[in-house]
Design goal:
The complex is a heterodimer of chains A (279) and B (336). Chain A has 279 residues and is mainly alpha-helical. Chain A is built from eleven helices and no strands. Chain B has eleven helices and 13 strands. In chain B, helix 5 packs antiparallel against helix 6 and helix 6 packs parallel to helix 7. Chain B starts with a strand and ends in a 6-residue tail after the last helix. Classes of the chains: A mainly alpha (279), B alpha/beta (336). The interface between A and B is large, with 36 and 56 residues.
Chain lengths: 279, 336
């Protein structure tokens, strides 16, 4: 009889090795996403189609009424939509999966591994999202370019927009995770996801920036976290302004922190009341 | 050295009940009527290092709930447990790196990717150094015969191949305890035999403690020396497999389909459970008559078209244990 010891990595700091595993989770999630390449590419065709429809709409609006609100003409609106839809359709849809894992008890089988479930899901979400987003941006930029011509963006601003977009997607993750974990207490969370996606349409500013909204609606939207998921990064992409960037990023960090705290609390409470009877 | 120590472990689930129909649904919202289900009732036992223990019982007996508490997935309602000196539900992550788990009805493999990708991910998750991982994977791939399908997506593997991958994945980080929850469920006879042989080999060579739950008596007979039987959440028997075999498993169920109908079949130690023309179901007491003799007897009556020999179902074994306990208490000579 021989005891086998497979020692853990000792080089480098524990925190780095601890986080490295999540990087590999993201990588495998990315790989799994491309297992069905045709399905994956088809999703982006849908994105291009939506973009095409709105390009037509904004172009007509621009031609007939000389439409322009606070610097948003048809060209800006098309590029805005390109950015907001790239985020909207680039988000990995993990919420329903979390709901299923909680309801069926499958979450239990993720608990006996040396990783944190929430971080595992975040890494997996980021792996898939990064891939979808990249493809969406390439396709979206091509459609927008062909339809309305280029928009001027400075490389430094683009980096800032990417930071804002990354925070936006992280915020979306924590909102989705909070909704998914509510399955510990409610029978069906699907309506929550439906409402959330519709809220993103309006309060998130999916189709048009807040500048186009009536004042009351714009004020309401700005008071919620949803405008930091779509509007903030898309608006920065089209009209960069340092003051807006700093305010948006600060608010995104605050919302991410608050929702992460909520998600961790829900997770801890949920796991304690986890009921998985039988196999 | 004691590896698993359990004392008075209980788990009570709350099940929400709902009357049928719309009115029932509305009533359940206004005044929910939760019902408590005692899945595990104050069980106590210990398992030594390197031991292979079978934890068997029928569906819903509390086997999986116990294994989930021992792996830290579920919090018990009462009692205490320690695995490798760690309280599972309090220090789940620390325990996770020292144990391996296989849940027969759940997969840890990434469905759309080849097993190799999952192995690679697990190496990072368990923080196994690269050279160690390479050697370990090579050893496991050789032993479990994974080479031929290492690069085939999991969704294209047979159940037996998948289970071999599942067990190899759970052994990758060199766990000291292996929890196997129904590892042979749904497998054919050949695949079952392969899995059992592999588990036996890993126990022999690496001294891994194996805690196996199953409702397949064959798993227990072929793998373990000790068996615990659980029913309705209570431990009803903790004995050696040989004692169980001697006392309860000497009966075999023989189902035969003969070429021609026969009037009757009679033999010492053989009870005819069912007889319909050419179909027979027999209960054979192997202490009195061997299976060979029964087959010879059947062949003398008619040509055998089809035959199966099986252990009595776990439910039957449990009924026998209860029957024996009751007769011992009442002083009535018992047995079958």
């Amino acid at each position: 009889m021989r005891a086998v010891t497979v020692t853990a990595v000792t080089t480098g700091s524990a925190a780095v090795t601890g986080l490295a595993k999540y990087f590999h989770v993201a990588r495998i999630s990315m790989r799994a996403r491309t297992a069905y390449l045709a399905d994956f590419l088809l999703g982006s065709v849908f994105y291009a189609l939506i973009l095409y429809v709105f390009v037509q709409l904004w172009s007509v609006l621009g031609r007939t009424r000389g439409f322009a609100v606070e610097g948003f003409g048809p060209r800006e609106l098309v590029w805005y939509l390109m950015a907001s839809e790239a985020i909207m359709l680039g988000r990995a849809r993990f919420e329903q999966e979390t709901d299923e894992e909680v309801k069926t008890g499958a979450i239990a089988y993720c608990l006996n591994k040396p990783y944190h479930y929430i971080l595992f899901k975040l890494a997996s979400y980021w792996g898939e999202t990064a891939l979808k987003m990249t493809l969406n941006i390439v396709i979206g930029a091509a459609v927008a370019l062909a339809a309305v011509g280029p928009i001027s963006v400075r490389p430094a601003h683009l980096c800032a927009v990417l930071v804002c977009a990354a925070l936006a997607l992280t915020l979306n993750f924590f909102i989705g995770m909070a909704l998914g974990l509510s399955a510990f207490w409610v029978e069906d969370t699907a309506p929550f996801f439906w409402i959330y996606s519709k809220v993103l349409f309006v309060l998130g500013g999916l189709f048009a920036p807040m500048e186009v909204y009536p004042d009351a609606l714009a004020r309401t939207a700005r008071a919620t976290p949803f405008n930091y998921v779509l509007y903030a990064p898309a608006r920065l992409f089209v009209q960069f302004d340092m003051e807006f960037f700093l305010r948006a990023v600060t608010m995104q960090v605050v919302w991410v922190a608050a929702l992460a705290f909520l998600v961790m609390a829900l997770y801890r409470m949920g796991v304690r009341r986890l009921d998985v009877n039988g196999g | 050295m004691v590896t698993i120590d359990v004392c008075g472990l209980s788990k009570v689930f709350e099940v929400r009940e709902k009357a049928p129909g719309l009115a029932g649904s509305l009533r359940s919202i206004i005044s929910p009527s939760p019902r408590e289900v005692e899945a595990v009732r104050g069980i106590s036992f210990s398992v030594d290092e390197g031991e292979m223990l079978a934890f068997i019982g029928p569906n819903g007996a509390g086997k999986s709930t116990t294994i989930k508490m021992l792996t830290g997935i579920l919090h018990p309602t009462k009692g205490r447990a320690s695995v490798l000196g760690i309280t599972p539900w309090k220090d789940r992550q620390r325990l996770a790196s020292q144990i391996g788990c296989v849940f027969g009805q759940r997969s840890q493999l990434w469905y759309h990717l080849p097993p190799r990708d999952t192995f690679e991910l697990l190496a990072h998750v368990y923080e196994i150094p690269k050279p160690v991982y390479r050697d370990r994977l090579e050893m496991l791939a050789g032993r479990f015969g994974l080479g031929e399908f290492m690069r085939t997506p999991v969704r294209k593997l047979s159940l037996g191949q998948r289970m071999r991958c599942e067990i190899a994945a759970s052994l990758l980080h060199g766990p000291r305890v292996l929890f196997l929850d129904e590892p042979t469920i749904g497998l054919d006879v050949v695949a079952k035999r392969t899995i059992r042989e592999l588990i036996r080999q890993m126990n022999r060579e690496e001294g891994i403690t194996v805690f196996l739950t199953s409702h397949d008596v064959g798993d227990m007979e072929e793998l373990c020396r000790r068996v615990m039987i659980i029913n309705h959440g209570e431990l009803i028997l903790d004995t050696s497999v040989s004692a169980l075999r001697r006392d309860y498993l000497r009966f075999k169920i023989v189902r035969a389909r003969l070429a021609d109908p026969i009037d009757r079949f009679q033999m010492d130690g053989v009870a005819v459970v069912k007889h319909k023309q050419a179909n027979l179901k027999l209960s054979v007491d192997t202490d009195v008559t061997s299976i060979d003799e029964v087959l010879a007897g059947l062949m003398r009556c008619a040509r055998i078209v089809d035959i199966t020999i099986a252990d009595p179902p776990t439910e039957q074994v449990i009924a026998d244990i209860y029957g024996r306990c009751a007769s011992e208490v009442s002083g009535v000579p018992g047995g079958r």
